[in-house]
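call fold target=Ribose 1,5-bisphosphate phosphokinase PhnN
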Amino acid sequence: MKPGRFIAVVGPSGVGKDTVMETVCARNPALIRVRRVITRSPEAAGEDAESVSVAEFDRRVGAGAFVLHWQAHGLHYGIPATVLDDLAAGRDVVANLSRAVLPDLAHRFTRSMIVLITATPEVLAERLAQRGREDEADRAKRLQRADFALAEGLDPVVIRNEGPLEQAVAAFEAALQPERA
Ligand SMILES: Nc1ncnc2c1ncn2[C@@H]1O[C@H](COP(=O)(O)OP(=O)(O)O)[C@@H](O)[C@H]1O
Ligand SMILES: O=P(O)(O)OC[C@H]1O[C@H](OP(=O)(O)OP(=O)(O)O)[C@H](O)[C@@H]1O
């Protein structure tokens, strides 16, 4: 069977990755949204993630429980290795990743694609403030990282999310058809 695609959604903090993914997945039930494992408190999770302690996260790294993991914003994030079962069964999966781990995709997955969501710095600042998940100091650090450059040689689908959410969602759906990978 043809394996599913690992669809990596990346972009600066506050750009709307989770919001766009949630809407796309709600409208396309065949897509599987990856439930990330994060060392963030459950109250602050802001997405359907599994919250664990740093000790538990490290234990899982040692046990090979993650197909990808990274650190950012003082937190640890992991993508459960169980996504490999979904991909092997031919299902497409969608996950919010760090831009820093994109060079690993080609080694980990047979078929993958990258969706880079962007917006102007002004829009990002406004959205982060509106979301209210982080304090001002943390928001400032996230904004400083907004222009993190992707590694050379990657071929992302770029979607601007500056207007109505529906536009970004439609662009995402269009990127899924026809299949690029
Ligand atoms: N197109 C949009 N128009 C207006 N607000 C948006 C849009 N997309 C996302 N948002 C809002 O911006 C904030 C940040 O979105 P979120 O999905 O948490 O971003 P990210 O996951 O990229 O950090 C949320 O409050 C969300 O409701
Ligand atoms: O290396 P970067 O591309 O800058 O990404 C750093 C981290 O930021 C995002 O996390 P998270 O979803 O916690 O934050 P966000 O919702 O504010 O983007 C993303 O999923 C990474 O885990």
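return ok
Residues 10, 13-14, 17-18, 72-73, 77, 96-100, 142, 145, 148 surround PRP (ligand 2) (CB under 6 Å). Residues 10 and 97 are 6 Å apart (CA to CA).
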